[in-house]
Design goal:
Chain B is mostly helical and about 55 residues long. Chain B is built from two helices and no strands. Chain B has a domain of about 35 residues. Chain C is mainly alpha-helical and about 250 residues long. Classes of the chains: A mainly alpha (about 230), B mainly alpha (about 55), C mainly alpha (about 250).
């Protein structure tokens, strides 16, 4: 008998659960909207200033929204014991761990990251970004939010069941997200100021690939540590 | 000897605040780091000794 | 076989405890002697710099502190990884003992960097590649310390800390490179980071001696802290309660 397909099972399950609890799934987006809106209120409505700070503001808020929502992924599964079952289900403990890690990252991105990419243009307009900049915004978030989901997963697995886990996670994972933040917001700034963002996107793409390959391994290792 | 007087030495060509501010704070950090480690060790030994007496 | 046995002899907590106890006073002496020599040369032999005046003398502690902060992080990650891979508890204890001293050196590098920056570049803080990366390194240390302290199960805490430290080490070059890149992009706001004065032999000697002094100090404190952790963890162990340990 072949081992059950861990990746698709976990992914399907998470997506179905998110669909049932739509409000919970949309909370990170609401957070993003509120947080982004705070900046003009704090900084002042001057369009030039807002345009200049918008790449950074949008990226930082996306980062925080991703990190705040990632602990949800594992918390309920660990509480009811299904996480252990998932890790035991696959062909080997190692491959099951990676499959679970990837599935969780993909489901987090589909529920939190992708919607962010889709609503970002609205906020680009709020900050008076040009059309080309908004396109760059969506592209950089499209590449960047998966990186955030993957790294957030590592953090969630490391802090599984730990008190103050979500705050601790932010402290642990945000420094690791800094390169993505730099290249992601840099790309938008570059397009806004008229120069080429090719370098930024290349580096962001490289980060995406590297993170995609390595983060699930780290998450799987962290899950093993947490469960044993 | 490059300093003509103690006063010159402490003044550091006008940058005394920065130079001594650096070295002073760092010396304090080092002292605190060391003292906390030593105290921790002493406390651990004391706790074990107390534990041993109760056994 | 005998050689391997001897190599791993000090992997046993009681033997390490005894060895460390014997060595610590020597490390302190070395640190004080080297530090005194380094400061003597730095303050009484090295000439005043033409451009920076006497403010540059901060580098005699700033540069060693920065080097130590980076080296200790790597050493911490190394021992944590060894502890995780080989289930060697002493290695994990050493890793935990390294963290606070590493964080302290990072803070010292940042503090002295700011105080050097003010007279040299005109501002307390500059978002140049090195200072910014150093700040992020401080966050990495704090994150490690927060994580191992938050997890109550010692073994799980050690392993999770090891994973985090390894991930951090891999990321440090990436973070440095990206910050450097970011820095050169926003050239308008930055001043050239190559602000170190032209190095005369006496300056180099002073820096080297101060670096060695910091090394010796680090050994002394980290070994002390490791001994404390050994006692805390091995509380029930016979060798401690028998009073066999010095």
């Amino acid at each position: 008998m072949t081992p059950p397909p861990v990746f698709s099972t976990v992914l399907g399950r998470d997506l179905r659960l998110a669909a049932r609890r739509r409000v919970d799934a949309l909370l990170p987006l609401a957070f993003f909207a509120v947080a982004v809106s705070l900046f003009p209120l704090g900084v002042g409505p001057e369009p030039n200033t807002l345009r200049q700070i918008s790449p950074g503001v949008l990226w930082v808020c996306a980062l925080l929204a991703a990190m705040l929502s990632v602990t949800q992924l594992y918390a309920t599964d660990q509480a009811d014991g299904s996480l252990e079952q998932m890790l035991l289900a696959g062909g080997s403990a190692f491959s099951a761990g990676i499959a679970v890690a990837l599935a969780k990252a993909v489901s987090h991105w589909l529920v939190t990251g992708l919607p962010l990419v889709l609503i970002a243009p609205l906020f680009g307009v709020m900050f008076d970004l040009s059309g080309r900049s908004i396109a760059a915004l969506c592209a950089s978030l499209a590449l960047g939010t998966p990186i955030l989901s993957l790294l957030g997963n590592v953090g969630a697995a490391l802090t599984l069941g730990v008190r103050n886990g979500s705050v601790l996670l932010i402290l642990l994972i945000v420094p690791l997200c800094i390169p993505a933040l730099i290249f992601g917001s840099g790309a938008i700034s570059a397009v806004e100021s008229g120069s080429s963002a090719r370098g930024h996107f290349s580096l962001l793409g490289a980060l995406f690939i590297a993170t995609g390959l390595l983060a699930p391994l780290a998450t799987a290792a962290a899950l093993r540590i947490a469960i044993e | 000897m490059i300093w003509n007087s103690a006063g010159e030495f402490f003044a550091m060509g006008g940058y005394g605040l920065y130079v001594w501010g650096s070295y002073g704070v760092i010396a304090a950090c080092i002292a605190i780091d060391a003292l906390i480690a030593i105290k921790r060790h002493r406390a651990a030994r004391a706790a074990t000794a107390a534990n041993g007496e109760n056994n | 076989m005998a050689m391997t046995m001897r190599f791993f002899t000090y992997a046993s907590p009681p033997r390490f405890y005894a060895l460390a106890g014997a060595l610590i006073p020597w490390f302190w002496i070395a640190a004080l002697v080297l530090g005194a020599a380094g400061l003597w040369i730095g303050f009484f032999q090295a000439p005043t710099d033409a451009t920076q005046g006497d403010a540059y003398r901060i580098i005699f502690i700033h540069v060693p502190a920065a080097w130590m902060s980076m080296v200790l992080y790597l050493v911490m990650a190394f021992w944590a990884a060894i502890g995780w891979a080989f289930n060697a508890r002493l290695a994990s204890m050493v890793a935990r003992a390294l963290a606070p001293t590493g964080a302290m050196f990072t803070f010292c590098a940042l503090w002295s960097g700011a105080l050097w920056g003010k007279p040299t570049w005109g501002t307390w803080w500059v978002w140049d590649a090195r200072l910014t990366s150093e700040l992020i390194l401080l966050f990495l240390y704090l994150g490690y310390m927060a994580l191992v302290n938050a997890i109550d199960d010692t073994r799980r805490a050690d392993q999770a800390g090891a994973l985090l430290a390894v991930i951090g080490s891999v990321n440090v070059p990436i973070i440095y490179f990206s910050v450097k890149w970011w820095n050169t992009l926003h050239q308008g706001a930055t001043i050239s980071a190559t602000a170190a004065p032209k190095m005369v032999a006496s300056m180099l000697t002073a820096m080297l001696l101060m670096t060695l002094a910091c090394w010796a100090y680090a050994f002394a404190v980290v070994f002390t802290r490791t001994r404390a952790i050994i006692v805390e963890r091995e509380r029930e162990a016979k060798w401690l309660n028998d009073g066999a340990a010095a």
